[in-house]
């Protein structure tokens, strides 16, 4: 009986320790032109998965002006964010015949690529154990 009690107490402390090491990431998205559609936000943790396999994805209703979202339970480390304003709510980035985005988009560090998206390294930022706050301007 005592072993089960100590085991349960140990499990509770383990969960508390895990939650203590998880941080919140606060993302403020500015220059939103309209309140139609959704903001589709993807958080990436690894350079080799940049723009292909996100660590976390969230979707938030668009509001003209700016929106702040919080992604919780982020382990400390390096991350990059890519997002776009899905104005027509079809779940994908609208592009013209040349592949150029027709819907507003943005990346962490307000990184810009030439002839394509920026690299993970250009978009990368650190999330310490205390959490982080970033701002991304839509273009």
Kindly describe this structure.
The protein is an alpha+beta fold and 139 residues long. It has a single domain (23-137), classed as Immunoglobulin-like. Helix content is 17%, strand content 41%. Strands 2, 3, 5, 6 and 7 form a 5-stranded antiparallel beta sheet that branches. The radius of gyration is 18 Å and the shape is globular. The model is unreliable at 15-19 (pLDDT under 50). This is DUF2141 domain-containing protein.
Low-confidence stretches: 15-19
Q: Number of folding domains?
A: 1
How much of the sequence is in beta strands? 35-45%
- Roughly how many Å is the radius of gyration? 18 Å
InterPro entries: DUF2141
Keywords: Signal
Pfam families: DUF2141 (PF09912)
Protein name: DUF2141 domain-containing protein
Short description:
With 139 residues, this protein is of the alpha+beta class. The chain has helices at 2-21, 120-123; strands at 22-32, 38-44, 56-61, 65-75, 77-86, 105-107, 125-127, 132-137.
Question: Topology, please?
Answer:
Blueprint: H1 2-21, E1 22-32, E2 38-44, E3 56-61, E4 65-75, E5 77-86, E6 105-107, H2 120-123, E7 125-127, E8 132-137
Parallel strand pairs: 1-8
Antiparallel strand pairs: 1-4, 2-3, 2-5, 5-6, 5-7
């Amino acid at each position: 009986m005592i072993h089960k009690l100590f085991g349960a107490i140990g499990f509770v402390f383990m969960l508390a320790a895990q939650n203590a090491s998880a941080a919140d990431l606060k993302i403020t998205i500015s220059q939103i032109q309209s309140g139609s559609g959704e903001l589709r936000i993807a958080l990436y943790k690894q350079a080799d998965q940049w723009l292909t396999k996100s660590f976390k994805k969230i979707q938030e209703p668009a509001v003209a002006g700016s929106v702040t979202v919080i992604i919780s339970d982020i382990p400390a480390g390096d991350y990059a964010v890519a997002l776009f304003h899905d104005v027509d709510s079809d779940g994908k980035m609208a592009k013209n015949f040349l592949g150029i985005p027709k819907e507003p988009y943005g990346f962490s560090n307000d990184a810009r690529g030439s002839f394509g998206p920026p690299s993970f390294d250009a978009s990368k930022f650190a999330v310490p154990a205390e959490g982080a706050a970033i701002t991304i301007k839509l273009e």
